[in-house]
């Protein structure tokens, strides 16, 4: 989040359009959380509900990477955002989504016994 805010608030950028990726941060994990909540057997090899949720989640992730690039490549002489803001937003995206992946991997392992001794 710090990188996204820096990409918006630094004096040379001063445009808050890249902050819209925060909406994708909020929306991205929701389909997967809902699908995992309503699956009967999470260990099965094929679950259409979970696969659709992962597809929708990937759409949100790709959109959050595409939005700053599209805003920086505006055809006018003055693009909507500068490339520096785009790079800061993309770096923030990588960190946020790696954190979300770590969250899902950590809390997916519910049946691990930590008191093995």
From TrEMBL:
InterPro entries to which the protein is assigned, alphabetical: Vps55/LEPROT
Source domain of life: Eukaryota
Membrane protein topology class: Multi-pass membrane protein
Cellular compartments annotated: Membrane
Main location: membrane
Keyword Transmembrane included in the entry's annotation: yes
Alphabetized UniProt keyword annotations: Membrane, Transmembrane, Transmembrane helix
A single BP term in Gene Ontology: late endosome to vacuole transport via multivesicular body sorting pathway
A GO CC annotation given for this chain: membrane
Pfam families with a match to the protein in the record: Vps55
Residue ranges crossing the lipid bilayer per the database entry: 15-38, 50-74, 80-107
PANTHER family associated with the record: LEPTIN RECEPTOR-RELATED, RH04491P
Family of the protein in this entry: Belongs to the OB-RGRP/VPS55 family.
UniProt name for this protein: Leptin receptor overlapping transcript-like 1
